[in-house]
Design a protein that fits this description.
about 425 residues, 6 strands
């Protein structure tokens, strides 16, 4: 049984430092339920994975987008609490895989895999904090991938070299916020145009006019078996795919200048995306389904990574004034649903999040055809980083807004 939310963000830092005191105070002790959910989950992550190299259930450390997502969320806990424990955990991961020249063990830029970019987002804060030149070298290395990254005819990034002519929703999150932050920090304003173009092209080719949802992938060549021979779209609306897209928009907009000529276009895409997302929110639980528009069709299920990503994106957009205030009601309803239906807590206080799709893609070997049967039969996992990271980030948003213990739809923020 999931515990109910127990402490609002009104005394977040005070409770945190009173109970924790220092990183050494935790050790193997139980995770106190007096802490905010963000900290409880962050501590649970570290307890489950003493080495950050194991964050994606693999025995050996690798440079991966899942690790990047979870560690980015822990950096945000560090920013909220000031406790270096969470920043150092990400530093430990980077130092396992990055050498003094800035090279990343196990990857080659020539693979043109946009997933490799995501973990680079944690390097910005590490560079700020340590001034270690190797982190800047790695940032420049990841930036260099886009100089020759293969593109569609209109300039959209292929998802990977091994998936030619294809844009996937996932790729928008992996690459675009990184490029937008890089542009802001290192003075490359032309990159803002490129970032905006990625969203515009993905919506242009992926959006369904009837539902407003975006198909998981689009094949410009129409050669893939999963691609509609006329439109090039994949068959279904995958929850996490839309989650990646929504998070990418709100995160990239953190860095797109207020006076950029395409900023309003991106806000328009965000508004259409949010409208579609809220249209398909389950009224009873506040959550979202693995296949978004198929509701209670046999085999479909309420999925945690999509739900946490949508709550994060909607809450952040509302907080930042990008979407109207009533959007926060949908976000609060979703957050309450996550706490009630997806979060469980062990006797020692360790927090878990359940019902995450372990992975889904298109094409490849064995071939993934994008059918309804494909999506509902992918492995379902507990404590998958693709749900853990957005849950932490969503929790931080509600804590920072002084959310009540059980936010209700009529007044989610006190």
């Amino acid at each position: 049984m999931a515990h109910s939310a127990n402490k609002s963000g009104t005394h977040f830092l005070a409770v945190f430092f009173l109970v924790i005191g220092s990183a050494a105070a935790f050790g193997q002790k139980a995770v106190p339920d007096s802490l905010p959910w963000s900290v409880r989950m962050a501590e649970s992550v570290i307890r489950r994975n003493p080495s950050p190299g194991a964050l994606d259930f693999r025995p050996r450390p690798r440079w991966g987008y899942v690790q990047g997502l979870v560690l980015l969320s822990l950096q945000q806990v560090w920013a909220a609490t000031g406790n270096p424990r969470y920043l150092d955990y990400g530093k430990q991961y980077c130092d396992l895989l990055i050498d003094s020249s800035g090279a990343i063990h196990g990857i080659r830029i020539e693979e043109y895999n946009i997933d490799h970019i995501n973990a680079g987002k944690i390097l910005f804060k590490l560079l700020d904090r340590t001034q270690d030149p190797k982190y800047k070298k790695t940032l420049l290395l990841l930036r260099s991938q886009f100089e020759k990254h293969p593109r569609t005819g209109e300039g959209g990034f292929w998802h990977k070299k091994i998936y030619p002519h294809q844009m996937w929703l996932d790729g928008l999150y992996m690459g675009s916020p990184f490029l937008a932050e890089f542009a802001s920090r290192f003075g490359e304003p032309a990159l803002f145009d490129d970032v905006a173009n990625q969203f515009i092209l993905m919506e242009k080719h992926g959006r369904d006019a009837k539902t407003g949802l975006l198909h998981h992938g689009w094949d410009e060549s129409r050669r893939q078996k999963w691609a509609d021979p006329v439109t090039g779209k994949s068959p279904h609306f995958w929850g996490r795919g839309m989650g990646w897209f929504a998070m990418a928009l709100v995160d990239a907009l953190d860095f797109i200048p207020k006076d950029h000529p395409r900023r309003n276009d991106l806000i328009g895409i965000l508004k259409r995306t949010a409208r579609a997302i809220t249209d398909f929110q389950d009224n009873e639980t506040g959550l979202w389904y693995q296949v978004l528009d198929q509701g209670k069709r046999e085999g479909n299920y309420l999925e945690s990574s999509a739900s946490t990503m949508f709550v994060y994106a909607l809450a952040k957009a509302a907080k930042n004034g990008l979407l109207p205030g009533e959007t926060m009601r949908a976000a609060a309803k979703g957050y309450r649903g996550i706490l009630r239906h997806l979060i469980t807590v062990d006797d020692d206080g360790t927090v878990h999040i359940t019902k995450a799709c372990a992975g889904a893609g298109l094409g490849g070997n064995p071939y993934r055809d994008g059918s309804y049967e494909y999506y509902i039969h992918e492995m379902i996992r507990t404590d998958d980083g693709k749900a853990v990271g957005p849950f932490i980030m969503a929790s931080l948003l509600f804590e920072s807004l002084h959310a009540s213990e059980n936010p209700d739809e009529s007044s989610p923020i006190k």
